[in-house]
Amino acid sequence: MMSKLAAHTVLPFPRIRLPMVDGGRMARQKHTVHGLVEFDVTLAREAIRQHKLQTGETLSFTAFIIACLAQAIDVNKRMHAYRDWRNRLILFDDVDVNTLFEVEADGKKTIRPHILRSVNKKTFRELHEEIRAFQREHKSSREAKFIDWFVLLPGFVRRLFYWALFKNPHLLKEYYGTVMMTAVGMFGDGGGWAIPTSNHTLQLTLGGIVKKPGVVEDRIQVREYLSVTVSFDHDIIDGAPAARFTQRLKELIESSYSLCD
After folding, report:
1. 81: which of 11, 13, 120, 129 is 20 to 30 A away, CA to CA?
2. Does residue 136 form part of some domain?
Protein backbone atom coordinates (compact mmCIF):
# COMPACT_ATOMS: atom_id res chain seq x y z
CA MET A 1 0.00 0.00 0.00
CA MET A 2 1.48 3.36 -1.02
CA SER A 3 2.08 5.74 1.86
CA LYS A 4 0.62 9.22 1.85
CA LEU A 5 2.86 11.82 0.17
CA ALA A 6 4.43 14.41 2.44
CA ALA A 7 3.42 18.04 2.05
CA HIS A 8 5.34 19.52 -0.87
CA THR A 9 5.35 22.12 -3.62
CA VAL A 10 5.80 21.42 -7.33
CA LEU A 11 7.57 24.02 -9.44
CA PRO A 12 8.57 23.92 -13.12
CA PHE A 13 12.31 23.50 -13.70
CA PRO A 14 13.63 26.93 -14.85
CA ARG A 15 14.77 26.78 -18.48
CA ILE A 16 17.43 29.36 -17.68
CA ARG A 17 19.20 26.59 -15.70
CA LEU A 18 19.59 24.34 -18.75
CA PRO A 19 22.93 25.87 -19.88
CA MET A 20 24.26 25.10 -16.37
CA VAL A 21 23.16 21.47 -16.77
CA ASP A 22 24.79 21.31 -20.21
CA GLY A 23 27.97 22.93 -18.89
CA GLY A 24 28.28 20.45 -16.04
CA ARG A 25 27.95 17.52 -18.46
CA MET A 26 30.72 18.89 -20.71
CA ALA A 27 33.02 19.76 -17.81
CA ARG A 28 33.29 16.09 -16.81
CA GLN A 29 35.34 15.50 -19.98
CA LYS A 30 38.00 18.12 -19.19
CA HIS A 31 41.18 17.71 -17.15
CA THR A 32 40.76 20.70 -14.90
CA VAL A 33 43.18 21.53 -12.08
CA HIS A 34 42.12 23.88 -9.27
CA GLY A 35 44.32 26.09 -7.14
CA LEU A 36 42.99 27.59 -3.90
CA VAL A 37 44.67 30.91 -3.08
CA GLU A 38 44.14 34.04 -1.01
CA PHE A 39 44.77 37.61 -2.12
CA ASP A 40 45.14 40.57 0.22
CA VAL A 41 42.54 43.08 -0.99
CA THR A 42 42.92 45.53 1.90
CA LEU A 43 44.30 48.37 -0.24
CA ALA A 44 41.72 47.86 -2.98
CA ARG A 45 38.77 47.73 -0.57
CA GLU A 46 40.00 50.84 1.25
CA ALA A 47 40.35 52.72 -2.06
CA ILE A 48 36.77 51.78 -2.96
CA ARG A 49 35.49 52.88 0.48
CA GLN A 50 37.33 56.21 0.30
CA HIS A 51 35.98 56.87 -3.19
CA LYS A 52 32.42 56.28 -1.97
CA LEU A 53 32.91 58.62 1.01
CA GLN A 54 34.20 61.36 -1.28
CA THR A 55 31.79 60.96 -4.21
CA GLY A 56 28.90 58.71 -3.12
CA GLU A 57 29.70 56.33 -5.99
CA THR A 58 30.27 52.63 -5.33
CA LEU A 59 33.02 51.37 -7.60
CA SER A 60 32.67 47.86 -9.00
CA PHE A 61 34.93 45.38 -7.21
CA THR A 62 34.23 42.95 -10.06
CA ALA A 63 35.56 45.50 -12.58
CA PHE A 64 38.73 45.85 -10.49
CA ILE A 65 39.38 42.08 -10.44
CA ILE A 66 38.69 41.82 -14.19
CA ALA A 67 41.12 44.67 -14.91
CA CYS A 68 43.82 42.80 -12.97
CA LEU A 69 42.92 39.47 -14.59
CA ALA A 70 43.20 40.95 -18.09
CA GLN A 71 46.65 42.37 -17.47
CA ALA A 72 47.91 39.08 -16.00
CA ILE A 73 46.70 37.20 -19.08
CA ASP A 74 48.07 39.83 -21.45
CA VAL A 75 51.66 38.85 -20.60
CA ASN A 76 50.91 35.12 -20.97
CA LYS A 77 48.31 34.62 -23.69
CA ARG A 78 48.56 30.85 -23.45
CA MET A 79 46.40 31.16 -20.33
CA HIS A 80 43.36 31.63 -22.59
CA ALA A 81 44.42 29.50 -25.57
CA TYR A 82 42.15 26.87 -27.15
CA ARG A 83 42.69 23.86 -29.41
CA ASP A 84 40.96 23.79 -32.77
CA TRP A 85 39.76 20.77 -34.77
CA ARG A 86 43.22 20.50 -36.40
CA ASN A 87 44.82 20.19 -32.94
CA ARG A 88 46.45 23.61 -33.14
CA LEU A 89 46.58 26.11 -30.29
CA ILE A 90 44.87 29.44 -30.95
CA LEU A 91 46.18 32.29 -28.76
CA PHE A 92 43.93 35.35 -28.84
CA ASP A 93 45.20 38.91 -28.55
CA ASP A 94 41.97 40.16 -26.95
CA VAL A 95 40.85 38.93 -23.54
CA ASP A 96 37.06 38.43 -23.48
CA VAL A 97 35.79 37.75 -19.95
CA ASN A 98 32.50 35.90 -19.54
CA THR A 99 31.06 36.66 -16.13
CA LEU A 100 27.77 36.14 -14.32
CA PHE A 101 25.60 38.70 -12.53
CA GLU A 102 22.53 38.27 -10.37
CA VAL A 103 19.84 40.55 -11.75
CA GLU A 104 16.09 40.95 -11.35
CA ALA A 105 13.89 39.76 -14.22
CA ASP A 106 10.09 39.65 -14.05
CA GLY A 107 10.22 40.23 -10.31
CA LYS A 108 12.61 37.34 -9.66
CA LYS A 109 16.34 37.09 -9.02
CA THR A 110 18.15 35.30 -11.83
CA ILE A 111 21.67 34.84 -13.17
CA ARG A 112 22.60 36.46 -16.46
CA PRO A 113 25.91 36.09 -18.33
CA HIS A 114 27.70 39.03 -19.88
CA ILE A 115 30.88 38.99 -21.96
CA LEU A 116 33.16 41.98 -21.53
CA ARG A 117 35.18 42.27 -24.73
CA SER A 118 38.85 43.24 -25.10
CA VAL A 119 39.19 43.93 -21.37
CA ASN A 120 42.99 44.06 -21.67
CA LYS A 121 42.54 47.21 -23.76
CA LYS A 122 40.07 48.94 -21.44
CA THR A 123 40.57 51.04 -18.35
CA PHE A 124 39.06 50.19 -14.98
CA ARG A 125 36.59 53.06 -15.42
CA GLU A 126 35.41 51.71 -18.78
CA LEU A 127 34.87 48.27 -17.27
CA HIS A 128 33.04 49.77 -14.29
CA GLU A 129 30.67 51.73 -16.53
CA GLU A 130 29.98 48.70 -18.75
CA ILE A 131 29.13 46.50 -15.76
CA ARG A 132 26.83 49.09 -14.22
CA ALA A 133 25.08 49.59 -17.58
CA PHE A 134 24.52 45.83 -17.91
CA GLN A 135 23.10 45.60 -14.40
CA ARG A 136 20.60 48.31 -15.30
CA GLU A 137 19.69 47.16 -18.81
CA HIS A 138 20.47 43.43 -18.86
CA LYS A 139 17.25 42.50 -20.69
CA SER A 140 18.44 44.21 -23.86
CA SER A 141 21.94 42.71 -23.82
CA ARG A 142 23.06 40.44 -26.63
CA GLU A 143 23.86 37.57 -24.27
CA ALA A 144 20.47 37.78 -22.53
CA LYS A 145 18.59 37.64 -25.84
CA PHE A 146 20.65 34.67 -27.02
CA ILE A 147 20.12 32.72 -23.78
CA ASP A 148 16.36 33.35 -23.85
CA TRP A 149 16.25 31.83 -27.35
CA PHE A 150 18.84 29.11 -26.78
CA VAL A 151 17.09 27.46 -23.81
CA LEU A 152 14.02 26.82 -25.99
CA LEU A 153 16.01 24.40 -28.18
CA PRO A 154 15.84 20.62 -27.59
CA GLY A 155 18.72 19.13 -25.61
CA PHE A 156 20.30 17.30 -28.55
CA VAL A 157 20.37 20.55 -30.59
CA ARG A 158 22.07 22.40 -27.74
CA ARG A 159 24.65 19.62 -27.42
CA LEU A 160 25.34 19.73 -31.17
CA PHE A 161 25.87 23.48 -30.89
CA TYR A 162 28.35 23.00 -28.01
CA TRP A 163 30.23 20.33 -29.99
CA ALA A 164 30.67 22.71 -32.93
CA LEU A 165 31.52 25.57 -30.57
CA PHE A 166 34.40 23.78 -28.87
CA LYS A 167 35.90 22.69 -32.20
CA ASN A 168 36.17 26.29 -33.36
CA PRO A 169 38.02 28.67 -30.97
CA HIS A 170 36.88 31.74 -32.90
CA LEU A 171 33.24 30.70 -32.55
CA LEU A 172 33.88 29.88 -28.90
CA LYS A 173 35.28 33.35 -28.31
CA GLU A 174 32.24 34.93 -29.92
CA TYR A 175 29.62 33.05 -27.87
CA TYR A 176 31.50 32.02 -24.73
CA GLY A 177 34.37 34.46 -24.24
CA THR A 178 37.96 33.34 -23.69
CA VAL A 179 37.99 33.41 -19.88
CA MET A 180 35.34 32.75 -17.24
CA MET A 181 35.02 34.64 -13.98
CA THR A 182 32.29 34.09 -11.44
CA ALA A 183 31.75 35.20 -7.86
CA VAL A 184 29.99 33.25 -5.13
CA GLY A 185 31.29 35.20 -2.14
CA MET A 186 29.16 38.26 -2.86
CA PHE A 187 26.08 36.43 -1.57
CA GLY A 188 27.39 35.68 1.94
CA ASP A 189 29.80 36.72 4.65
CA GLY A 190 33.17 35.17 5.51
CA GLY A 191 35.86 33.39 3.56
CA GLY A 192 35.71 30.14 1.64
CA TRP A 193 36.39 28.66 -1.77
CA ALA A 194 34.14 27.17 -4.43
CA ILE A 195 35.22 24.36 -6.78
CA PRO A 196 33.57 25.09 -10.15
CA THR A 197 32.77 22.89 -13.12
CA SER A 198 34.76 24.76 -15.74
CA ASN A 199 34.70 24.57 -19.55
CA HIS A 200 37.15 27.40 -20.20
CA THR A 201 40.92 27.07 -20.37
CA LEU A 202 41.02 29.47 -17.43
CA GLN A 203 38.36 30.26 -14.85
CA LEU A 204 38.54 32.51 -11.82
CA THR A 205 36.00 31.87 -9.05
CA LEU A 206 35.82 34.52 -6.33
CA GLY A 207 34.89 33.27 -2.89
CA GLY A 208 34.38 35.22 0.31
CA ILE A 209 36.36 38.02 1.95
CA VAL A 210 37.49 37.56 5.53
CA LYS A 211 39.49 39.66 7.99
CA LYS A 212 42.47 38.00 9.66
CA PRO A 213 46.04 38.76 10.73
CA GLY A 214 48.66 39.35 8.04
CA VAL A 215 52.31 40.40 8.02
CA VAL A 216 53.06 43.77 6.40
CA GLU A 217 56.61 45.16 6.64
CA ASP A 218 57.37 42.67 9.44
CA ARG A 219 54.37 43.83 11.47
CA ILE A 220 51.14 41.96 12.15
CA GLN A 221 48.06 43.83 10.95
CA VAL A 222 44.41 43.01 10.40
CA ARG A 223 43.99 42.49 6.65
CA GLU A 224 41.15 41.58 4.29
CA TYR A 225 41.71 38.41 2.25
CA LEU A 226 39.77 37.30 -0.80
CA SER A 227 39.46 33.54 -1.38
CA VAL A 228 40.06 32.74 -5.06
CA THR A 229 39.90 29.46 -6.99
CA VAL A 230 42.07 29.44 -10.11
CA SER A 231 40.95 26.63 -12.46
CA PHE A 232 42.86 25.77 -15.62
CA ASP A 233 42.79 23.13 -18.32
CA HIS A 234 45.86 20.95 -17.71
CA ASP A 235 45.79 19.78 -21.35
CA ILE A 236 46.83 23.29 -22.36
CA ILE A 237 48.49 24.86 -19.29
CA ASP A 238 51.28 23.34 -17.20
CA GLY A 239 51.69 23.97 -13.49
CA ALA A 240 54.69 26.33 -13.75
CA PRO A 241 53.00 28.83 -16.16
CA ALA A 242 49.84 28.63 -14.06
CA ALA A 243 51.86 29.46 -10.92
CA ARG A 244 53.57 32.42 -12.64
CA PHE A 245 50.21 33.71 -13.85
CA THR A 246 48.73 33.41 -10.36
CA GLN A 247 51.71 35.25 -8.84
CA ARG A 248 51.34 38.10 -11.35
CA LEU A 249 47.59 38.29 -10.65
CA LYS A 250 48.32 38.42 -6.92
CA GLU A 251 50.77 41.31 -7.40
CA LEU A 252 48.26 43.31 -9.43
CA ILE A 253 45.37 42.77 -7.02
CA GLU A 254 47.37 43.41 -3.85
CA SER A 255 48.83 46.64 -5.26
CA SER A 256 45.27 47.83 -6.04
CA TYR A 257 46.21 48.11 -9.73
CA SER A 258 44.01 50.53 -11.73
CA LEU A 259 42.20 51.90 -8.66
CA CYS A 260 45.00 54.38 -8.07
CA ASP A 261 45.17 55.56 -11.70
Report:
1. 129
2. yes
